[in-house]
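Session log. Operator J.P. requested a structure for one protein chain; no other inputs attached. Running the standard single-chain path with token output.
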Amino acid sequence: MVLPEIFARLRLSETAFDFEQGRQLALDSTERMEVAWFDEDRRTVLDWMRAQALMDPARLLACGWCIGGHLAFRAALEPEIKATACFYATGLHSDTLGGAHGTAVSLASAREIRGSLLLAWGTRDPHIPREGRLKIHRTLDNAGTTYHVRLYDAEHTFMRDEGARHDPVATDRAFAAMLDLFEPFR
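Structure written below.
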């Protein structure tokens, strides 16, 4: 498993964010990030993984939560990624990622996705409203993408195991859906 550090360019990589207290710092920092940085980091990680003798290139998978869900979607655009789980992928419906508001061009690239995709949403998530989810699903349908949707009566970040939004039942079900998606690559 490889976990890229998205805050490294902002020298926040040594910062452990408390979900509630560090939230605004994380949000403000994310606004300063460029889509090109995310894409460069993804390619660097994939290049590193290909160079590792213990990595099986037939079993490269991606997953992410919130902004990481959006980044996982972008990772799915890479031909070597076999399956991807995106949990409440923030900004995907509006092409907003980091400081790019409406210009990230993630969803429009859906035709490039070769592997299976899992999208897990909370139906009470104000960041990804129903209309946004439907836009994503229509775009994936039109692109011919193989994808699965799991909806949970939950809020944004329902899988985060702290805070009032955590939903342990929905979390277990969402994790199980991801494990089902990844099972053929074990």
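Operator note: Helices lie at 23-31, 35-51, 67-76, 130-143, 168-182.
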